[in-house]
Amino acid sequence: MSADDQQTNIDDLLLENRKFPPSAAFKKNSLAVGTHLYDQAAADDEGFWAQQASELIDWDQDWHTICEWNVPYAKWFVGGKLNVSYNCLDRHVLAGNGDKVAIHWEGEPGDTRTITYSELLVEVEKFSNVLKSLGVVKGDRVNIYLPMIPEAAVAMLSCARIGAAHSVVFGGFSSQALADRINDAEAKVLITADGGYRRGEVFELKPAADEAIASTPTIEHVVVVKRGGNKVNMVAGRDHWYHELMATASDNCPAEPMDSEQLLFLLYTSGTTGKPKGIMHTTGGYLTHVTYTHKYVFDLHPESDVYWCTADVGWITGHSYIVYGPLSNGATQVIYEGVPNYPANDRLWSIVEKYGVTIFYTAPTAIRTFMKWGDDEPAKHDMSTLRLLGSVGEPINPEAWMWYRDTIGRGECPVVDTWWQTETGGIMISPLPGATTLKPGSATFPIPGISAEVVDDAGHRVDHGGGYLTLTRPWPGMLRGIWNDPERYQETYWSRFEGRYFAGDGAKLDSEGYLWLLGRVDDVMNISGHRISTTEVESALVSHPAVAEAAVVGANDPTTGQAIIAYVTLRGGYEADETELRNHVAKEIGAIAKPKMIYFTPELPKTRSGKIMRRLLRDVAEGRNLGDTTTLADASVVNELQKRAAEAPSED
Ligand code: PRX
Predict the structure, then answer these.
(1) Domain residues for 610?
(2) Is residue 162 pLDDT above 60, yes or no?
């Protein structure tokens, strides 16, 4: 690589040689073995998607055009009509699977609910009628602000049934965040709860909703689910108890066929700056994409699998892989309301054992936390039913991947690292577990039907080494725009590289064509002209047995431009040894990547969805006042780090 290249591309430092081909036992029953899906999609990607759409989805009317593509706007299955809620519910009941469990719900305090497909359909038909009675019509927006209770799925599916778009706001967000999102979407109805359970206590939602509604003129009605049992203020005429409305609602609400491009939902994503973007997803393409990926990436056998995704329904993972993908596939799934450490650190493993979970999908941040808590926690439970593990949300460090496979997956379960975004709607880059030889930490290859390329600064394709991850062809689940802001849509995703979607992530290709995600390009550090990804240095740190989690940032430095500052959380039972860790990084990936300074901390600052907030750590490292901290999950973490930074000795 020339010196020039080093300045414009992201360096490729970490070498990972371990490989895990699918076992014979896994391949035996796997839905996708060998390359036939890849071959079909490579020969004709639109034809491939059309085949998935007709095999996996029930349509009321056929489409006339598979894909209409006018950069940057795509339409899929144009002219087709279908109903998402029909596909997620009615068709399973009509096929004789009404008594099959759709949801094993586990409340944080230990209460449970078992909901079959027939029961879920009745709830959804009733609630669809409730929404209609409150004046909601096709094309309206409905806001949802709920804890992780089955009513969240009921509310979403009911909107889909009548053609209203939902906008779910994560229950941990503030009243201001809720108000901003309601106002941007101009939602007519808000569905919330009195409160929910978190860490053994009731957290109140209705008061936050009340505060938000004080500044949202479009909200006409509020529906309140009783969950927390906390006292709430109900405004006569505006606020209604869910159970009271449901008690008198008719359970007959036939699904109305919707246009394939009917708006299904808005989901707001914060982005790095400015006001949240209302990401738009529509009906036919989205449902096809999530149904297909849920089936093949998780190798779903709906007759025997018990699937569990630990995400919150307020994030895209909850939309695509708790509500729409699994229900469309007729899966049986677990939904858990609370935190992983209530009443103790083994709660998730006790749930795996209790329900016989076979497929488990979680985030690297959770996996690293489990590593920190130690191997004894999972060892308390029989988790032999698990057969497949998934990861999503951040790059997974190779050592965290290995720990997940060995300690949770008995060294037998394949781990599928799935790369995608709110904007992509569904999984884009991931192994197919019966077909792909895995490498720890790599999301491997685009799934059949998806075209991704790594390019350099000038937009030229990179075949080996680091660069920018772009998508070169439209895909069915892709966002259709940003609500009320077409210019921002064009500018944010389609302006950096002509004709390509740029995802904001860096990635590298190894000599065998495997993709390795390198984190957001905004986080890439420049050390003496070397562009080094935070992910690779973090992974080098996490490969030391003492380290559970690491966050790395580049802070201004008079000699090297930027210097690497690391924040490290240790595994239980290990002592802090800065020199040892710095030398370890040098040994793993080279002296250039050696952190100048390491801070040890029991927690890292994270967003509410669990992503490390490197921007804040940069502020801390450079001694700046903190910028916007509203998305921070726990503000005390940064205060503590700031204190330590101020006390730290000056550098060598
Ligand atoms: O940076 C990538 C990271 O999460 C971003 C998308 O975040 P969000 O829209 O909240 O959706 C999260 C759930 C899909 C991406 O741009 N990301 C997500 N999955 C991975 C990942 N980074 C590396 N590897 C992944 N598997």
Answers:
(1) 523-647
(2) yes
